[in-house]
Amino acid sequence: MNKTKKRIIEAAIALFTEKGFHGTSIQEIAAHAGISKGAFYLHFKSKDALQVEIFRYYTSLIQEEMDSAVDPGLSAEENFRRQTGVQISQMLRHTDFIVMVIREQAFSLNTELIGFIEDIRLSQSEWYRDQLTAIYGEAIRPFVHDIYVITEGIKSYYMQQFISNPQALNPLALTELVVRMTGQAAEGFLGGKLRPLLDEETLRSLFAGLFPEEKETGDMSGVIEAMRTILCGLTIPRATAQYLQSTLDFLETQAAAGAGADRTAIEGALSVFRPYPEFRDSLQEMKKKFGLEDE
């Protein structure tokens, strides 16, 4: 990442933390970064694109350090402790980013960010699966979802308690607490003392009916292409056209996800086309294919 792009990201984080995403203009970000507004657009096509890049930037920082913390000569439990410590230390180091995330709860209009956040959650869940099976073996798999929720809940809420004064938090103590509570949860499930709330059968029932038949989320490329064609013929501001185009890209990825698609995100994405009557028929077709009810 070049220096100017990094400077824009850091300026945006500071302003988003202070004023909020919607309360900050691109001109203010550019001025804070010491560049022109035109230079901003050389690096980011929009403020929404910058928001996504901020998440990518911080996620990559944490991932790189987590990868470097792994020592093949240590036990799986010790590597889990080391990587958990990295996560907590990085969160303490970048409290401005955490404040921004907590403050900006309404991501529904940025469909690309919604998709990225879901990818992060999936990746984190898979990381827990790999770590726990390395420590406890395959017997732990039915309980991974519950342990993931318990462990992340402990970590996240402790971080929120100390967010206004991160210097008061001992990262080593929190790391040890998280690791210990993870172990107790795993032993409780494996020993039969605890029953999972998120076993595979429950998860299937929770998401059953989201997409009733797989064929309903079948090939939607024709509908999406038709919407792209309609979009090209609309007389609307360039920024709006770009936003609608990125929304179609998001819908395309959700169509490819099949039963793993996110219904809430899809409904939000479709809603941005409602002000344009030209998309009415296409929206009805999309709703049918995604198995969404009519309003």
Automatic annotation (TrEMBL):
InterPro entries linked: DNA-bd_HTH_TetR-type_CS, Homeodomain-like_sf, HTH-type_Tx_Regulator, HTH_TetR
Organism of derivation: Bhargavaea beijingensis
Protein name: TetR/AcrR family transcriptional regulator
DNA-binding region in chain numbering: 25-44
Domain HTH tetR-type: residue ranges: 2-62
Keyword Lyase: no
One of the Pfam families matching this protein, by short name: TetR_N
UniProt keyword terms in alphabetical order: DNA-binding
